[in-house]
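[step 3/7] fold_predict: job queued, chain A
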Amino acid sequence: MTRGGITGDDEAELIVVGGGLVGLTLAIACAEGGIRTIVVEAESAEALTGRGYDGRSAAVAYGSQQVLTAIGAWERLAPDAQPILDIRVRWRAGQVRRCFRLVQSHVTGLVSIAP
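[step 4/7] structure written:
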């Protein structure tokens, strides 16, 4: 089956299965390093960018933000990034078991990206 411009003639040194944060980061870094890379994602681009997509938020730690900066992706994500001010861990029927208040100076670069 051919979708997204992949044909039987395409060759790659690396095939990344999954176009989430980790898969795309790996694919971009490898492609920038000169490795012929193809990303295989089950969802179509239209489904992933459509209004009906659930588009969950992602927490990005400082080290991951540095990786995204190195591959040139962070500057596109940064306008939508916000600091994480607290984390709530829920257990059974939504009961809050733990609540962590994060002090920005202690967790430099920990941010949330909402689509």
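[step 5/7] annotate
The CA atoms of residues 72 and 109 lie 16 Å apart.
Helices lie at 21-32, 45-49, 62-70, 74-77.
exit 0
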